[in-house]
Design a protein that fits this description.
- The protein is 35% helix and 27% strand.
- The chain is of the alpha+beta class and 492 residues long.
- The strands form 7 sheets. It has an 11-stranded mixed β-sheet, sandwiched between helices.
- Helix 2 crosses helix 6.
- The longest helix has 29 residues.
- The chain binds one RNA strand of 78 nucleotides through helix 1, strand 11, strand 14, helix 10 and helix 11.
Length: 492
RNA sequence: CGGGGUGUAGCUCAGCCCGGUCAGAGCGCUGCGUUUGGGACGCAGAAGUCGGAGGUUCGAAUCCUCUCUCCCCGACCA
């Protein structure tokens, strides 16, 4: 009989606590000795690598090239775009000394790279023939946030940031939406995280942008997570950094620029979208491991037989590809652990398929496997498993997406009445607020007073979804005439 | 940055109120053996400047001051 083992906190009991325990239990990341920073452990970093490899392909397929710009941004650059300074300067880390001397000009550690890239683009762009300029960079950035949470908001985080320059506002807008669509499809098709695409309200725009768009996912505590943003920067940065070109009409014009990014926050999104009370659940397409095999044997003789039985299977699996990348298979041969603890560990780590093989299976030519997304253990012949493994992974990928989508639908309501709206976002038990709320789709006129009412409820306008039919309505908060609905929600 | 918590072995914590074998437990870890289809067992062992710095005291994990971390709630935000 097993000893009593403390399970992890349930999502329903304490969601933030669950989130931390899950990260720790799956060995994804830990706090670093530096405030607000994290160490991304190998198992967690592998997810990031898989995100990088596949998203990078998509970014390149849409015509972008990778480059790299400096970590340090001269203070004067940050100061050039008015809104940008106001937005970012307060949360920047600044280098004042280097090489044992005080610097003549402070160097900001990039919170984002529009300014330094703008300065470089000035030199790269002279003619309409130099446009469009389509660049992406994978980098780390630093934002000195007041309150940090592993993956969701850390002082330093990893991301990709695309920076493009165009001839016309139409082209820039097209680019902005194209990359938003890339993010949508990446989130949904790879991370199995359903998202809503839409435009941010004016007050929530990127500092220095004309339009900001985002993808918004619903986490299991029904709060929204902004999982990626795409900005149409108009000519704001072009003017600040004199990114000018000679047009087809022989006139000097400012370029139209965009920027867009997703970060390691996506990993937080994956955890909170799919995780359950046993641990994380990895979407197969970004899972560090697809299949883990636990051999079970009573003695050395059996061990040898089981391993021999497994060899051809493992060899076959390792040659396979799942999507664009190799199938990732591991045989858990650790001697010190019995099978039980191994099962629990791989469950915490969310490996999509766990295979058990013992003498029983060797004799019958079978294996036993369990899907991380649920259901009973199943027995299958060794050969059929190899034939079915890819479709099993596809099924898991699809089923966790469907589950997340169903969850979002269940927790999304359309409302026209402010009282219902308030009730929706008010916990029933104030002393111990339970998980409540969700997404509200309601008319929104975009006026400033709306913000105040929302603030009292701790609700934010997530975005005005794209592709909706316009209709006459009244803003749910102010009653002002409105043509479009917005998604309202509590958010990370 | 405000309010509230917290910090003792890798983890979970006891000890603190009433200073004096208080450096402790369980899990984990190491070695040997037995075990192995859902968190095994025996024996032996290693491991902590009690978050940090000052102070009070004959003596501080324990009392005082300052400081830092992390967590929760706010304000700020990918």
């Amino acid at each position: 009989m097993g000893r009593k083992f403390k399970g992890m906190t349930k999502r329903s009991e304490d969601y933030p606590q669950w989130y931390q325990e899950v990260i720790k239990g799956a060995e994804l990341a830990q706090h670093a000795p530096v405030k607000g920073c994290m160490v991304i452990r190998p198992y967690g970093y592998a997810i990031w690598e898989n995100i990088q490899r596949q998203l990078d392909e998509m970014i390149k397929e849409t015509g972008h090239e990778n480059a790299y710009f400096p970590l340090f941004v001269p203070e004067s650059f940050i100061n050039k775009e008015k809104d940008h300074v106001e937005g970012f300067a307060p949360e920047c880390a600044v280098v004042t000394h280097a090489g044992g001397h005080k610097l003549e000009e402070n160097l900001y550690i990039r919170p984002t790279s529009e300014t330094i890239i703008g300065d470089v683009y000035r030199g790269w762009i002279q003619s309409y023939r130099d446009l469009p300029l389509l660049i992406n960079q994978w980098a780390n950035v630093v934002r000195w946030e007041k309150r940090t949470r592993l993956f969701l908001r850390t002082s330093e985080f990893l991301w990709q940031e695309g920076h493009t320059a165009h001839e016309t506002p139409e082209e820039a807008q097209e680019e902005t939406l194209k990359m938003l669509e890339v993010y949508r499809s990446f989130a949904e098709d790879y991370l199995a995280m359903p998202v809503i695409t839409g435009e941010k309200p004016a007050y929530d725009r990127f500092a220095g942008a004309d339009h900001t768009y985002s993808i918004e996912g619903m986490m299991q505590d029904r709060k929204a997570l902004q999982a990626g943003t795409s900005h149409n920067l108009g000519q704001n940065f072009a003017k600040a950094f004199e990114i000018k070109y000679l047009s087809r009409e022989q006139k000097e014009e400012f370029a139209w620029t965009t920027s867009w990014g997703v970060s390691t926050r996506l990993i937080g999104g994956v955890i909170m979208t799919h995780g359950d009370d046993k641990g994380v659940v990895m979407p197969p397409k970004v899972a560090p491991l697809h299949v883990v095999i636990v051999p079970i044997a009573r003695n050395d003789e059996d061990k040898a037989k089981v391993n021999e039985y497994l060899e051809p299977l493992v060899a076959k699996l390792k040659k396979m590809r799942y999507g664009e990348l190799k199938l990732r298979v591991k045989v858990d041969n650790r001697e010190a652990l019995r099978p039980g603890p191994k099962f629990f560990e791989w469950e915490r780590k969310g490996v999509p398929l766990r295979v058990e093989v013992g003498m029983r299976d060797v004799a019958a030519g079978n294996l036993v496997f369990a899907r991380r997304d649920g259901g009973e253990k199943q027995t299958m012949s060794r050969d059929s498993f190899a034939e079915n493994v890819l479709s099993l992974l596809d099924e898991i990928q699809q089923s966790i997406y469907d589950k997340a989508l169903a969850f979002r639908k269940e927790n999304t309501v359309e409302l026209d009445d402010l009282n219902e709206f308030k009730a929706f976002f008010t916990p029933k038990n104030k002393k111990e607020p339970e998980i409540h709320g969700g997404f509200v789709l309601a008319h929104y006129a975009g006026c400033d007073e709306t913000e105040k009412t929302l603030k009292e409820l701790k609700v934010t306008v997530r975005c005005v979804p794209l592709g909706q039919d316009e209709e006459d309505g009244k803003c749910i908060v102010t009653g002002q005439p409105s043509r479009k609905k917005a998604i309202f929600s509590k958010a990370y």
